[in-house]
Specification:
By secondary structure, the chain is mostly beta strands. It contains one helix and eleven strands, in the order βββββββββαββ. Strands 2, 4, 5, 6, 9, 10 and 11 form a seven-stranded mixed sheet that branches. It has a four-stranded antiparallel sheet with strand order 1-3-8-7, with no helix packed on it. A hairpin with a 5-residue loop joins strand 5 and strand 6. The model has no long low-confidence stretch (mean pLDDT about 95).
């Protein structure tokens, strides 16, 4: 089973940028997409962005559209999440996730408990936006 590892989190001032990385231990033959989630202590995990490898389509939650960009480097089994124009509400632990079977990005991001449908997770990376 593929394993995922996130990196790139840190402390940044409002308006700043970060690039998160999600490295997979196996090639994408064993999974069909990657989704990014974030979670603040005491709150539900929420979907942030998703990329479907079969057609290259990308998806974003409304609050990050125009600020975050998801991309993929197939050669290195890495999916990136570029975070721009960060604000304090973006502070959270960010996780990347996938599943051993194909999953619909729209459902995973669009439903409050969509994350429950994914069974492969990284350990997360903390993003703190603070002045």
């Amino acid at each position: 089973q593929v394993q995922l590892e996130e990196s790139g989190g840190g402390v940044v001032q409002p308006g700043g940028s970060l690039r998160l990385s999600c490295v997979a231990s196996a090639s994408s033959h064993s999974y069909t997409g990657i989704a990014w989630f974030r979670q603040v202590a005491g709150k539900e995990r929420e979907g942030v962005s998703c990329i479907n490898f079969s057609d290259g389509k990308t998806y974003y939650r409304d609050s990050v559209k125009g600020r975050f960009t998801i991309s993929r480097d197939k050669a290195s089994n890495t999916v990136y999440l570029q975070l721009n124009s960060l604000n304090t509400e973006d502070t959270a632990v960010y996780y990347c996730a996938t599943d051993s079977v194909p999953f619909p990005c729209q459902v995973v991001l669009g439903t409050p408990t969509g994350y429950l449908g994914l069974d492969i997770w990284g350990k997360g990376t903390l993003v703190t936006v603070s002045s």
